[in-house]
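Narrative summary of target 7.
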Amino acid sequence: MKKTLFILLLICPFIKMKAQVEYMHSFGAAIYTDITNYAWPGGTYHARLNFTELGDMALSVGARPAIGFYYNSNDYYGENYLGFDFPVTVDINGGMGTTSGDDDGVGFFAGAGVEYSLLVGLPGFFGPTGNAGIRASIFEQPLELRVGYMYDITGTEVGQLTVGLSRLLGF
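Modeled conformation, tokenized:
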């Protein structure tokens, strides 16, 4: 531990860092599925705080809550469920969308964290999650395409795959 801290202290003066907190956000839609049993569409809102900028990149912590609707057409009664998803991740961001003043044409992000998902009336599930995506200006609109996967540690599901498209705000 002391050796790691010493190395960081030696390296830090040579890294261009800016410790300015910046709020970034977006909204969009996503599909949540475990690939075999269910899929439900949802609306998402992504709020993140950039807490360290490293040159053209930024480290952020964010939450991407979602709400949606699941209809089970395989069930005799055609049951309906309200779905909630709440991932919290730490991400590395680069290029477009890294900061509000960033005018790069393309950007990316990747990160990891934890996620809780629930279809009301069914057991919820929780586990580690990872996500990655690209950001680009398409038809002069700043958009973000994201793919994420949550591994369920509760034993309720095998995991959950998420694919989403969002519109970045504040550009």
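The CA atoms of residues 91 and 127 lie 17 Å apart.
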